[in-house]
Amino acid sequence: MLRAAEKHAENATVLRYVASMYLEGDEPARARPYLDAILKLQRRSLDDDAFARRAILTLDVDSFEDRYDQAIDYVRSGDPQKHLAAAKFLREMIGRDPRYWQPHLMLALAVRDSEGDASALSHLNDAVRLRPNDAEIRNLMAAILRKQAAREAVEHLRAVVAINPREIEPVVNLASAMRDANMFDEARQVCGAALQMIPDHPEFKRILDSLPPPRQRQN
Fold this sequence. Notes:
With 219 residues, this protein is mainly α. It is built from 13 helices and no strands.
């Protein structure tokens, strides 16, 4: 494996395997050169980037994995005090590496109740900039923006449909967001296309029925 890493120093997959070997062994610090090499590659996947950044935090922060898992549990707990504790830890990790995407997402969830939607959106904007192909981030942003009747929600839901092209729910959410943003023609087109593929689907029919009549074109 080490020979492969020397021969394929520009291959993120090979570098990742070697780093994982050291991280899971008795000398995790020996993974660092390979993690640094991943982050220097011009062509690396978002997953490779996230792997390297999280692994470096594991090397640099005492008990990182346990503390990070606890922070995530705190975010999901619904307890305001635990949310505050999680937010503090997540901000510390973002300070160490602002380009690791996941703490931005979890921080948005941690502060949404205490600091409001605007603060959550700010952190989600950081997350989506670093991880544009993550459906969870896009859906959360769309949910907040739909409360504000903002058309930006539609663009995030378009991205979710592109990420999950075979799933029905993202298309339903897109059509309903278009309707709520007064994009009636676009909503009608989406529902019409969907009903050609899935005739009599109740959600698309319901959205179509809720739309105002099409505007008549003037000659």
